[in-house]
Amino acid sequence: MRPGDLLSRKQAGLPIAILTAWDALSAAMVEEAGADAVLVGDSLAMVVLGHPTTLPVTLEEMLHHCRAVGRGLRRPPAHQPLLICDLPFLSYQCGPDQAMAAAGRVLKDSPAAAVKLEGAEPETLAVMDRLVRHGIPVMGHLGLTPQAVHQLGYRQQANDPASQEQLKRRARQLQEVGCFALVLEHVPSDLATELSRQLLLPVIGIGAGDGCDGQVRVTADLLGLTHRQPPFSPPLIDGRGLSVEALRGWVAGLNASPAAPPTPDTSPAAPAAPHC
Ligand code: KIV
What we know:
276 residues, alpha/beta, TIM Barrel, eight-stranded parallel beta barrel, 11 helices, binds 3-methyl-2-oxobutanoic acid
């Protein structure tokens, strides 16, 4: 799958399914499930690295996880889902040269074919424009942007007419700079549906209702592996509960039939090995 194939799916009226992955194991499952694209999202900072927000994850860590995800994909390259990697906080906000270098490293040093950036500030738009002009496919992300958690919290965004107009303007700007798709997170569903209809680029929702061109989910949330899931992303199964129950059974089984204690060795002692 290439970035342009997502647009073809939108034009054909076919839904787009995107799931996150963070290692080879999760990547293989997501590919087998038939996802069109795999996102190595910076949510992995919270989901698998145990950080309280997405802010601490570094570019090196994202590259490390992205390579593992790439190794987990098993189909022939032409049939693999599109691999997208989030640019982490501070890898693209400190000037266009640094942003270009960070995005370039993702494409050079990992199997990802596209990057995702949050927001549409003038500086971010300038960075996106440069990346796109240099052949780096860019996905946008508006609405609840977790890298701005200290400003926005995890609340639903674009709730009043002024902020809805601002979001629509920003979404159009992302299309104009050449983003191949746009993630809309935790915004009113009417707004997301309207934008999906108006924009040419595919709109991928999470907590944005059913009217989007596609949906993206954090796989660990869907599988119920995380301690808590956002209200707009309820788990499909209690993966954590099932896993703990299975592991508890294994531990209990060992405790129920402990191995026989070792018998004392009565053979003559071997000479001690010399210390080097
Ligand atoms: O980091 C992530 O997993 C994301 C998705 C929630 C879209 O950005």
